[in-house]
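Structure tokens please, single chain.
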Amino acid sequence: MTSKGKTRRAVSVGLCAAAVAAVLAGVPAQAATGTGGGAPKAGAPGWRLTDTGTDARFRGLAPVDARTAWAAGSRGTVLRTADGGTTWRDVSPPGAGELEFRDVEAFDGRRAVVLAIGEGEASRVLRTEDGGATWTESFRNGDPRAFYDCLTFFDRRHGLAMSDPVDGRFRILSTDDGGRSWRVLPDAGMPAALPGEAGFAASGQCLVASGPKDVWMATGGAAAARVLHSADRGLTWTVAPTTIPAGDPARGVFALAFQGRRHGIAVGGDYRTGEPSPQAAAVTGDGGRSWERARTSPPAYRSGVAWLPRGRSAALAVGPTGTDLTLDGGRTWRTVDTGSFDTVDCTADGSCWASGEKGRIARLSWHR
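Here you go.
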């Protein structure tokens, strides 16, 4: 794949019970969440933008809890907050200004792993154990054919990163020491890639894990948009087509979210501005063996998706043109905000965060 072609592709809360109840009660779409341009109306849940002090684009996001979150983005920028987004500390690795960080996985307020994307040595993994005061480079890609897109962790020790196909198969990196060291897994258990197939480094959600061993990978750019699944931490994989349209380097599945081993949502579309993205969402109830198109999809390309905490059927999808909410497990979606975000994530304690262009990082809040 050419650098130019890859560059084109590398473009991107649970709601509390009260917020879901507000939507169910018929809160108007534009009142349901704020666009980040001002405070949401009283009595409505809304995105509240935080002051990051930068215009970097943050496609990597890793909230730990209601107070602690990490964001990774363009120009080698890494930010960390320990006060719920009131203030952000720039903890960017020294000398990383030419790197494009597209994914970050955080274990707590001190330990995090970031992924830089690109061909050859531009793809790197860095790790910090002191809140970003110092960083150690734990992997630098030495194969000019590889281009790493996303990483994910099963727990504090075991994680994977994925590259676009090399010699006709997706390449998988594995760590069992929390990202301190990495090794390329054998590809004997990896199905052959389709011509032109690749991942999208848009939101850090093209590779996602759920539980101790299950992991899913999203693809696009080929004749079909597919999802690959491994139940043994990346050693062997199965593959299934989705209903999200493909057939073009700019189209496919951009993000996945799984709730347990069976229930999953895929979102994507065509990332080019102004291009239609019909059928931009799909759902699975069998762990990704089969996918069903959403009855009502988001109206445009979406690059990030997250299940809402403390529930089994609500989720949010985000993209450059807005945020959409589902209350039925991804079968129908409703636009609730028109602000631009690339990725979204929620924590076990119920906090939800989103990030994107021009330094935008927001928290979902409830205004009384």
